[in-house]
Design goal:
The structure holds 2 protein chains of 2 kinds.
Chain A (H helix, E strand, L loop, with lengths): L4 E3 L2 E4 L5 E6 L4 E9 L5 E8 L2 E5 L7 E4 L6 E5 L8 E9 L9 E2 L3 E5 L1
Parallel strand pairs in A: 2-11
Antiparallel strand pairs in A: 1-3, 3-8, 4-5, 4-9, 5-6, 7-8, 9-10, 9-11
Chain B lengths: L2 E3 L4 E5 L4 E3 L2 E3 L4 E8 L5 E7 L5 E3 L5 E5 L4 E6 L8 E9 L9 E2 L3 E6 L1
Parallel strand pairs in B: 2-12
Antiparallel strand pairs in B: 1-4, 3-9, 5-6, 5-10, 7-8, 8-9, 10-11, 10-12
Chain lengths: 116, 116
């Protein structure tokens, strides 16, 4: 069964450094998402992406964040200058295109980001 | 504003007994409701969804959920719990209208432990 994959599983970085979190969505999916979960808190929406552009972003997704689909398979989340409060589990998700329906999102296993 | 509440951080049940994991929601317009399960070191796995129609929806692994509009609830149930059902369960909601790409709002999660 196809799965969303994410790399790395765990990233440790120093405050102020740039990180890139990588995701490979399911191959025939066209909608992509990033969510994050700070330890002990809810899973929070960051951004959705379709047709090579951001469709929606939350208040969390400020100028420090960016997303990109550099090729036909990868979907990346970049944090330009990490802060301590960016430490969280980051989940990538994808969803197929199906007009008029509301499909479930398929999630990857997550990348645990630790900012020191 | 959209929100989801899972009032129980933990649910403990003996194997073979019925289980219920509670979820209430708040959303403008018609809700689309989802349950996901997370096993250790794995991503969020889709269990079931309610979009429209029959209030009782059936999903994977013998789980079902009942949509109750008057109580704004979407409780997850299973008639006979298995030890292998032990995991973290997330309820999620999205707006039924005016939302193009399906931003999900999650509850905090409920840790289900099934004792042998």
């Amino acid at each position: 069964e196809p799965e969303v994959t994410q790399t790395p599983s765990h990233q440790v970085t120093q405050m102020g450094q740039e990180v890139i979190l990588r995701c490979v969505p399911i191959s025939n999916h066209l909608y992509f998402y990033w969510y994050r979960q700070i330890l002990g808190q809810k899973v929070e929406f960051l951004v959705s992406f379709y047709n090579n552009e951001i469709s929606e972003k939350s208040e969390i997704f400020d100028d420090q964040f960016s997303v990109e689909r550099p090729d036909g398979s990868n979907f990346t989340l970049k944090i330009r200058s990490t802060k301590l409060e960016d430490s969280a589990m980051y989940f990538c998700a994808s969803s197929p295109l199906q007009r008029g329906s509301y499909n479930e999102q398929f999630f990857g296993p997550g990348t645990r980001l630790t900012v020191l | 504003a959209q929100s989801v509440a899972q009032p129980e951080d933990q649910v403990n049940v003996a194997e073979g007994n019925p289980l219920t994991v509670k979820c209430t929601y708040s959303v403008s317009g018609n809700p689309y409701l989802f349950w996901y399960v997370q096993y250790p070191n794995r991503g969020l796995q889709f269990l079931l969804k309610y979009i429209t129609g029959d209030n009782l929806v059936k999903g994977s692994y013998g789980f079902e959920a009942e949509f109750n509009k008057s109580q704004t609830s979407f409780h997850l149930k299973k008639p006979s719990a298995l030890v292998s059902d032990s995991a973290l369960y997330f309820c999620a909601v999205r707006e039924g209208r005016g939302s193009t790409l399906g931003r999900l709002y999650f509850g905090r999660g409920t840790q289900l432990t099934v004792w042998p």
